[in-house]
Structure formats: C-alpha cells, structure tokens
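Researcher: Last one for today. Full complex below.
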Amino acid sequence: MTTRAVVIGVGHYLPERVVPNSEFEKTLETSDEWIRTRSGIERRHFAAEDETTSDLAMFAARKAIENAGLEPDDIDAIVVATSTPDLTFPSVATMVQQKLGMTRGFGFDVQAVCAGFIYALSTANALVVSGQAKRVMVIGAETFSRIMDWTDRGTCVLFGDGAGALVLEAQDSAGDISDRGVLSSDLNSDGRYRDMLYVDGGVSTTGDSGKLRMQGNALFRQAVEKLSSTATAALDKIGLNDDAVDWIVPHQANIRIIQGTAKKLGIPMERVIVTVQDHGNTSAASIPLAMSVGVQQGKIKKGDLLVAEAIGGGLAWGAVVLRW
Ligand code: UT7
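Model: Here's the assembly. Have a good evening.
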C-alpha cells in the first residue's frame, strides 16, 4: 500500500477584461499577425486595478473546493505558486486562507516563476505522502500585467493574468503506475541563466517591484531542450515512456515551444492541451488553467496519464507525471 496525492477537485478563474492583440497596435510598433505567428497568442486577460493575485487565487480555489464537494475547512494546507504576490509579505496563501473563511490549517507560497506550479505540486505531493496533510490546495496565480514594461514590445504582448487550482487528497493506492495521483516529478534550476528572464527590481535592491526583462530568443532555444528532457526524466523515474502519455499539459508560453517539445517527445499535438491563444503566458497559473480548461472541454478524464512541464526565470524547470 502506498499513499498517493490524488486530484479530487479543479477550478480556474480569469479576470473579466479580455485584451486582443489589436489593442497593442495602438501604442506599439507591433501587429496582431506578428504576435500570432511568433507566439500563438490571440488574446489575454488583465486583472482590474483593484483585483489582486490573492483575489484571483481565491476565486479559482473556491471553484476547486466546490468541484471536490468540500468545504474550506476540509483543506489542511494551501500552497500558492506565484511571482506576483499582493505584498512582499504575508504570503498569498495566507490571504487566500482568510478570504476562503478557513479557520484552520496552514499556507505558504512557492516562487519558481513560470515553473512555479510544478514546484508547488511537487511540494504539495510531499506534504501528502509524508502524512503532514490529508488535503492540500495547490494554486498557481499571477498578475504579470503589474510587472510589464508597456514600452517593451518584446515582452508586454506575451503575458496575461489568471489563476488555477487543484485539490489533492491522500488516498491509499496499490503502489504501481496504474494508481491515480502524482506518480513522479523532476525539478531543476541553474542560476547561471539568471539574465535570460528576470525582474529588474525587488525589496533588497531597488526597493520597488521592478519590470520584467527577457532575452526571448535565447530562452526559446533553451526551452525545447530542457522541457523535453525533464518530461522524459520524470517518465523514466517510473519506467514509462511517451507511449503511455494521454496528455501533455505544458506551460503556455509560446505555441512554437509547445509544438517543438511535443515533437521531440514524439507526441502528436492532438494529445497536447493548448490554451496559449486565449490566456497568453500566465506564468505559474498556466498549467492549472490548462488542466481546468482541459477537463471542461471533456479532454482530460479520470484515469488519464498527464505530463505537466514548465520552464521560467532562474532558470527553473521541471515536470510532474500524474494520473488524473
Ligand atoms: O514563460 C517563461 C518562458 N518564456 C519563454 O519561453 C519565452 C521564450 N521566447 C519566445 O517565446 C520568443 O522568443 C518570442 C515570442 C519572445 C520572440 O520570438 P522570436 O522568434 O524569438 O523573435 P526574436 O526575439 O528573434 O525577434 C525577431 C524580431 C526582432 O526584430 P529584428 O531584430 O529581427 O529586427 C524583434 O525586435 O521581432 C521583433 N519583435 C517584434 N516585432 C513586432 C519583438 N517583439 C515584437 C513585437 N512586434 N511585439
């Protein structure tokens, strides 16, 4: 018998305001055509001025709790992946705890930029299998619109805001690859690549939150290689290969990266969940958003084998294999 962290609820939230590519044509030397062909993005959602990351996270969490048929106090822990918290501290997780009306449990944030949800899911799994929590809410939530330089056409057209959430529950399982739940993970980082994607401000440097800077083309070249190798490594750990995979749920940064990674893994695009056209790059929120949309669309079903993979600032990258 093995304890597995099994997904029992999923939900997402997108802010009301939808911004099509054409809106950037008014202020920047760019075009809908360039953005579509280079990134696959057609539109993105931006949070309202008074809407914060913890608001987005709370709405997604409420839906996941409802989907699981639970009440907030049935949750033992909240792990939020974000790089755009409401405040330097306290954590977004504790704000979500309060907004949900939870009176027990604990919460904390994980920061691994666009790979954040992979790190958070892996951490939540560890809490469950070690017996520290029976039910864990894992959330990816971001307001990247707040760290955009609106004069930099190489970045500001690519990102969006949103949140997605999963509820994991400890369940007794056979201990083999037919089990539902998280089956393996592979985490990596390499700080030597820091200049490829970073924010040029922070508490102990400039004292403000700064703006996102990215060497898009250099990062692009790293992405396909690292994403395919981390996905393969996570599958290798449990003796599986690409044939066993029902769905790749990739970080949604660029359709060309998603296609290149799928091709390297030998998985046809029909088995890849793609939301980048509607959400843009929502950093740590992109994978749980894609999972939630994939379920809503009737694609991801109970028992399917999923590989989620992501890369972002750090560089930090990784993959999780889970059976839905
Ligand atoms: O979430 C974390 C992970 N993030 C990523 O993995 C992002 C990785 N990078 C990318 O997605 C792509 O590199 C971009 C979409 C950012 C850029 O696509 P690219 O094919 O790598 O283009 P590029 O950076 O090589 O730029 C090509 C040209 C440049 O002009 P010149 O130097 O050739 O004259 C850019 O200045 O496109 C220009 N350009 C634009 N043109 C119109 C850059 N941004 C824009 C724009 N509109 N918005």
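DSSP finds nine helices and 13 strands in the chain. The longest strand covers residues 161-173.
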